[in-house]
Write a structure and sequence with these properties.
mainly alpha; 11 helices
Length: 360
């Protein structure tokens, strides 16, 4: 999942770093313990909200500041996003390709590998994936591709900037809803969460909140209202999720939870973004939060591969609770160390190659 250092406002936000660190921690916990497996869903949905909130600021500020938003602006946006996301993705995709052989004695099929190259493995249907965590990257990359294109097309109809942006969001929400309807009618409700074109509105939720913050009177009171509304939505969805699990109502489960959970998280972000970094109290904790946030993209991409490789190597000695715990601890340590190394010596050099953002 693509993580943008700082915020679209040109400076780091400790509050958003904290949200990102919490999200990756939840995901890691779900991967390292089956007891918390369901929590991973919440962590990824928080990531979707964060991505939409940050990307929404970038897109709206670029679009609204330009009288004639051209294809040059779109390619600039794509280039900046892809220099950030693709090098790391393809690095770990290649590593996972060989890890697959080590773990299973065979490489993934050529056709499956090619689908992963263009994020097509889960476009309209769930499919086998040797790079399990890539499903969320597919949703993000296709959103980055499609939203600016739709906005560009609609902008040529000479609507006002706000109207064009809203219409683009409406297209994303309606399109995602219709894809989910189609999949549910085909008895694929259990796969919907992972299917790319059925989940674009998860990121759009964050874009909606960013748009509202940038185009309305977004004072502290408004941010508190958004925050309390978001928390209320999240608490309500926890109750609804529990109720639906007892009734097995998959239709409402899919169409309700998959939109309201990222929306709830997104609404909390404007206020969370205001949380300041403590310079005196708990300074070490604040530094750790910032580091984990910076490394979170690599952590997300590599944690399962490292964990499963350790399981394979230590398979004969993971016979009791203590050694099993030690193997997980080793996996966590290696994940953090590798992610810190990759961030400094791989991610940052590639990010420096990004073109400057077009301002006119």
């Amino acid at each position: 999942m693509e993580k943008i250092p700082g915020s679209a406002l040109g400076h780091r936000s400790f509050g958003l770093d904290l949200a990102r660190a919490m999200a990756i921690s939840i995901v890691i916990l779900s991967h390292f313990s089956k007891k918390f497996n369901n929590l991973g869903f919440w962590g990824v949905e928080l990531f979707f909200g964060l991505s939409g909130f940050l990307i929404g600021q970038i897109l709206w500020k670029s679009y609204s500041a330009t009288i004639n938003w051209s294809f040059r602006h779109i390619t600039n946006f794509w280039s900046r996003r892809w220099w950030r996301t693709l090098p790391n993705y393809y690095l770990f995709l290649s590593i996972t390709f060989f890890i697959q052989y080590f773990q299973n004695g065979s490489f993934p099929s050529f056709s499956l590998f090619v689908k992963h190259l263009w994020f097509g493995q889960n476009l309209l249907a769930g499919s086998e994936s040797f790079f399990v965590v890539s499903w969320s990257l597919c949703i993000e990359e296709w959103f980055y591709l499609l939203f600016p294109l739709f906005l560009f097309i609609i902008s040529k109809m000479r609507f006002k900037h706000t109207t064009s942006f809203i219409l683009t969001l409406v297209i994303i929400f309606i399109g995602s809803f219709l894809v989910r309807e189609r999949l549910i009618s085909q008895n694929l409700a259990s796969q919907v969460r992972f299917i790319t074109l059925a989940r674009l509105d998860a990121i759009a939720c964050g874009v909606v909140v960013a748009f509202l913050i940038l185009t309305t009177n977004s004072g502290l009171i408004r941010k508190w209202i958004f925050f309390l509304l978001g928390i209320s939505i999240l608490i309500s969805t926890i109750y609804v999720d529990y109720f639906l699990n007892t009734t097995n109502n998959q239709y409402i489960n899919v169409q309700f939870l998959l939109i309201f959970i990222p929306l709830g998280f997104s609404l909390t972000l404007p206020l969370i973004a205001l949380i300041p970094k403590s310079k005196k109290v708990l300074n070490i904790v604040c530094i750790a939060v910032e580091k984990i946030s910076l490394w979170s993209y690599s952590i997300y991409l590599c944690n399962l591969s490292i964990l499963f490789t350790i399981y394979k190597v230590l398979d004969r000695v993971r016979s009791d609770t203590f050694t099993n715990f030690l193997s997980k601890l080793l996996g966590l340590g290696l994940t953090i160390l590798l992610s810190a190394f990759i961030y400094r010596y791989f991610e940052v050099p590639f990010m420096k190659k990004r073109p400057g953002e077009i301002k006119d």
